[in-house]
Amino acid sequence: MAKNLPRYLPFARKYRPKNFKELVGQEILTKTLSYCINNQKLAGAILLTGIRGVGKTSSARIIANTINCTSLLNDSSNNALPCGTCQNCESFSKNNHPDVIEIDAASRTGVDDVREIIESSEYRPLIGKYKIFVIDEVHMLSKSAFNALLKLIEEPPAHVVFIFATTEVQKIPLTVLSRCQRYDLRRLTFEEILTLLKNIAKIENLKFEEEALKIIALKSEGSARDATVILDQASSYIYNTEQNDIIDSKSVNKMLGLVQTITILRLIKLIIAGNTRESIKLLEEIYMNSSNLEYFIQQISDFLASLVKEKAIPNFHDPLHKNYNTEITDILVGMSLSRLSILWQIFNNGANEIKSSHNELVTAQMLIIKAIYSCNLPKIEHILDASSQIIELDPSKNSFFEEDDLPENTNNIFNFLKFCHQEKEIELYYILLNEVEVKNFTSPLIEIVVSTKIIQEKHLKSLLHKWSGIEWNIIISQQENINSLKKTLLEKVKNSEDFSVIKNNFPNADISDIILKS
Ligand SMILES: [Zn+2]
Q1: Which of 192, 254, 424, 459 could hold 188 in an S-S bridge, CB 3.0 to 4.6 Å?
Q2: Are strands 181-184 and 207-208 parallel, antiparallel or unpaired?
Q3: 91 alpha carbon to ligand 1 midpoint, in Å?
């Protein structure tokens, strides 16, 4: 009964590339090997390395098929293509080619397994030109197994070709590595994966929203196999679970345990607006919808990373967020690069905190509160730069300094200092901030205490006049120990709650100077 039904072929197998032309993204391998095959310059040992799902096993199979085909074809790009009809190709497509021996080193790691290979390599191929040993996950072989193999790889009989595949090339002994022709298979780009998904969807007559395929492409992280598997899963999911016939972003997000981009945007906006109550409410809704909070925090982190890139790189636009350009521009206009970077850092670290937390909802809530708090910190453009430890403070705009930070009779000195900075009167600015104690600054009287340095009284007087439009009286006295403005401000800042938040995120942060800018 059931055995008469055609077996469902998963997309990953159905759309596995069958020749160099179909192998997307691995141009170096396809061009070089096509040339070698066409010109009889094939190496005895080929090593394929790269992340999972990038096409190592497929490439190994394509190479095996191509080198044994007796009626090779060439396309317009000079790709060597198996004919598909000769005895070798037919036997290969049925998975029973007697001269292609596939070994999984993960299960056969010992020296005895390798001895079998060595013995079998002495016999000539039965139908093909070459006897081909494909050893997958070759890094799993034991040291003695590698040693046993070494001599054979160095001088393989003319009829033997080894194809090794591995995700962990660093675990292969150098003696073996140096005897192989090595190909590093690269991750596919976002666009390559997207094109691949669109092609499959078209052949399978799947209806889809472009954004849904973009989410799959992003989630696959450059692995064609992962992308194909997710698309396959999504096509079944929409029929069975969602009673839907369109692969849309909502279903894909739900299937992958991800939250909709529009919801992430909403939360980020609430955080920036400092709306703690609504942010926490939204988080709880997401939690109640059984979304995975760890993924969610990662998603926020990735979204913020792309905002940082949009801010820092001219004309950079994340293709995944094309539909949200207006919202993103609104955020970017109101946020500095440093604040965005800090937000990213909070959520990036937060993903790990959630993983190890005993209550992920509470941890996520605390992260959001921390994020809201960080948005109210002063500008810290320089704190991200390890070589500089200067924080820019603007006493008129941030919460570092309250009205009572300085005695009322000196509070106004900030405005004058900003004026000095604006006028490029840096020396006077520096002296007033660092070298003297300002006892009183109430128009039209300034009282200053100096330790040694003599202030340029005339110059100060004329600047005060320029600033305020009136004549000032200057009283200067001398004493040994003074409390400079900078000293007072530094102490205040270092004892502040705000700075402790900075310290939590940047443990090595210190404040070595304060610059009041105009
Ligand atoms: Zn053939």
Answers
A1: 192
A2: unpaired
A3: 9
